[in-house]
Amino acid sequence: MDLTFSIIIFLLQVFVGILFAVISVYLGLRFFDKMTDGIDEIKEMKKGNLAVAIILASLILSIGTIIQQGVSQLDNVLVRGVSLPLFIIAFVMAMFQLAVVILIAVTVIYVAIRVLDSMTVGINELEEIKKGNVAMALVVATVIYLVSFVVAGAITGLNELSIFKPEIVAALLGM
Predict the structure, then answer these.
(1) Among 47, 75, 100, 146, which is least packed, fewest CB within 10 Å?
(2) Domain count, the chain
(3) 162: nearest Cα among 172, 154, 150, 153
(4) Smallest Cα–Cα separation from 99: which of 9, 12, 23, 14?
(5) CA-CA distance, 128 to 131, in Å (whole number)?
(6) In a structure prediction context, what are the per-residue pLDDT tens digits for the chain, which is 175 residues long?
């Protein structure tokens, strides 16, 4: 394979990885902000609320853990040494796959928090975190990270789906 093409693929992967990491963290934090109406996370962190900082850190780590799996799969989706049309199909499919991974990451974290909330009757986790309850923040953060860690392992199976195989999509398109 041509060295120049390999370098271009590498730089493309780095760029896409950074782009999707920034986008996914931004979306994840915005989504969490919408989910926590009574908490102004930035204001709480300026006050030194360690509980809020723990939750936000766990969100960023969790999203990063899931997205890392999606970005690492980018190499598998981008077929090397193929025609330009097949490469373009593979690249578009890789972008779609990363978008799916971001959606999965945000959804899973939301569901994990909601399930924990329903299991702990009589405790308002978010109110406790707003008050600075570090113990509660550690439990919620651990649940978030555990769920994302398990989901990240499942993400590796996305490439096995035929919709993520460029050759199959090209055949369907008559190429």
Answers:
(1) 47
(2) 1
(3) 172
(4) 23
(5) 5
(6) 578 877 877 787 788 778 878 887 887 788 778 777 778 888 888 999 999 999 999 988 888 887 777 666 565 555 555 667 777 777 777 777 777 777 787 788 888 888 888 888 888 888 899 899 999 999 999 998 888 888 888 777 766 665 666 667 777 777 7
- Distance between CA atoms of 63 and 61, rounded to whole angstroms? 6
One-letter amino acid at 42 equals: I
Q: Strand, helix or coil at 80? A: coil
Q: Which is it for the CA torsion 107, 89, 73, 21, positive or negative?
A: negative
Residue 150 CA to residue 156 CA, distance in Å, equals 11
Structural domain including 143 reads: 3-172
Picking from 155, 147, 148, the residue whose alpha carbon sits closest to that of residue 70 is: 155
In the numeric block, the tokens 């980018």 are attached to 74
* Its pTM surpasses 0.85: no
Residue of 14, 51, 19 lying closest to 36 (CA atoms): 51
